[in-house]
Design brief:
mainly alpha, 150 residues, 45% helix
Length: 150
């Protein structure tokens, strides 16, 4: 059952995913909390390793790592220690299923994601600067692609 409260740390995001939470929704809820009260403490506790515990767990763990590095950089802080060694996918993962956008995603993906072989639209994380009323539909789409269901 989905908690009525948003996760306040990436550790909590990982725990919720282990309990059956949808990764896209949990990450999106966390990003809303982060936007409202950005704090490095929200990133410091490592999330549980999801590889072998949930479908596509390695991809999800790599995404959480990349997100922690990306958000720490926005706070002008060093990335949390748990982001090293970095988890790198053996095959690239693209947030868009279509081949037409792949070249764009290869170029626009933020470095912490790109280095882990994750390719997302840079703009999908830019909504952190926007109010909720300005949230682009593409954010919902990209985060929904993190679903770990086959």
């Amino acid at each position: 059952m989905k908690s009525p409260y948003r996760p306040k740390t990436l550790n909590e995001v990982g725990r919720r995913i282990l309990e059956g939470g949808d990764p896209g929704y949990e990450i999106k809820d966390f990003l809303h909390e982060f936007k409202d009260s950005p704090n490095i403490q929200m990133l410091l506790a490592p999330p549980p390793n999801l590889e072998g515990s949930v479908s596509d767990g390695k991809r999800c763990s790599a995404f959480l790592q990349a997100l922690a590095v990306h958000l720490a950089t926005r706070l002008d802080c060093d990335p949390p220690n748990w982001t090293k060694p970095q988890i790198q996918l053996s095959d690239p993962w693209f947030a868009s299923p279509g081949t037409a956008l792949r070249n764009y995603l290869l170029i626009s993906s933020p470095a912490p994601f790109r280095s882990r072989n994750l390719f997302i639209d840079e703009d999908s994380l830019e909504w952190l600067k926007m109010s909720r009323s300005q949230l682009a539909p593409s954010v919902d789409y990209e985060l929904s692609r993190l679903k770990l269901h086959a």
